[in-house]
Every structure is written in structure tokens, then in C-alpha cells.
Amino acid sequence: MIGSIMKAKYEGNTRGPRAIDLQRLLLADHSVRISYWKAWKSRELALEGAKGSSANSFSLFPTYLHVLREANLGSLVELKIEVNAKGVYRFKYMFIAYAASLEGFATMRGVIVIDGAHLKGKYLGCLLTASCQGTNFQVFPLAFGVVDSENDAAWEQFFWMLNTAIPD
Predict the structure, then answer these.
(1) Is 31 left (phi over 0), alpha (psi -120 to 50) or beta?
(2) Which of 9, 62, 90, 157 is the most buried (most CB within 10 A)?
(3) In what order do the strands lie in the sheet with 112-119?
(4) Cβ contacts of 96 within 8 Å, gap of 6 or more
(5) What share of the chain is helix, strand, coil (3-state, %, to 5)?
């Protein structure tokens, strides 16, 4: 019930309310006290109703990458998922190198900088990036990948795909 009340109030807000704000709002507007856990769960339900569920977004991911590949001919796009014993799909690796970035690499300095950043939120992972520097010292993105965790297998997959995109 609380989630449906909040959904209408925060439909256009991209971040949504914090759980503590929901507690205060319900107390001020409706004279109802709720626990922090109930406020947090209501917030999750309201955001899911307003923005859609993460599971729905994940099911659209292969289609999005296919359209991206078709719209950017020459781009290298790779998605790896695994299926566990229960038949549930689990994200492993995603790699994207746009054709424009790959073509532009020929005019860049010959050094590639690799970095990784941990992702926070409901689904953890790591964002891996490959960049280089232009002749005027500006950063030029080459490729990026999202992996389930920062480990040797994930880095190996990223470097293998980067080597496929830029053979030298």
C-alpha cells in the first residue's frame, strides 16, 4: 500500500526518496509510523513500479546489444551469461568497443590505459575501461566492459576482447 502511494508521488524522480524520507512523509501526511525496513521495502516497490524491475531490464539487454551492433556497424559487442543448475540466467561479462573509437585509435598515441572501477548498488560488479590519449593530450575512450567481479578470468576476457578489437 505504501509503495503504491509513493509511486505516484515520485514517478518523475530518477533517484526516488530515501527510506528515512518515507518515514517522515508518512508521519507528516498520514500520521502513520513505520519501521525503517518497511520504508526501505516500500521504496523499492515504488521504484520498481515507476521504473520497472531489474529482471525486466536484464531480459532486454541482449536485444539492446543487438540493436547497438546493427546501428554501429563495425562495433565489437560481446555478452556472456551463464545458466545455473536451476535454469536461472546470470550475467558474467559484457564488452563494447564502438567502431568510431576503433577507427580513431589509428590517430592516437600508441599507449592504452586500462582501469577498473567497482560498481555499487543492488547488483555489484566492475566497470573496466580502455582509453588512450590523443595528440592534444585528451582522453579517447576505446572500449569498456562490465564484469560480474574483478578477478583474473574477468580481466582475461576483457583483454582477449580488446586484443580482438585492436590486434596490435
Answers:
(1) left
(2) 157
(3) 76-83, 89-97, 139-147, 125-133, 112-119
(4) 65, 68, 75, 76, 77, 143, 144, 145
(5) 45, 25, 30
The CA distance from 160 to 168, in Å, is: 12
Continuous segment of H or E residues that includes residue 125: strand 125-133
Report which residue type is found at 9. Answer: K
**Which of 123, 120, 128 shows the shortest CA–CA distance to 147?**
128
Which amino acid, one-letter code, is at 93?
Y
From CA 12, how far away is CA 98, in angstroms rounded?
31
- pTM of the model as a whole: 0.72
Q: pLDDT truncated to tens, each residue of the chain (168 aa)?
A: 766 666 666 566 556 677 787 788 778 877 888 888 888 887 777 777 666 777 777 788 889 999 999 999 999 999 998 888 888 888 899 999 999 999 999 889 888 999 999 998 777 899 999 999 988 889 999 999 999 888 999 999 999 999 999 987
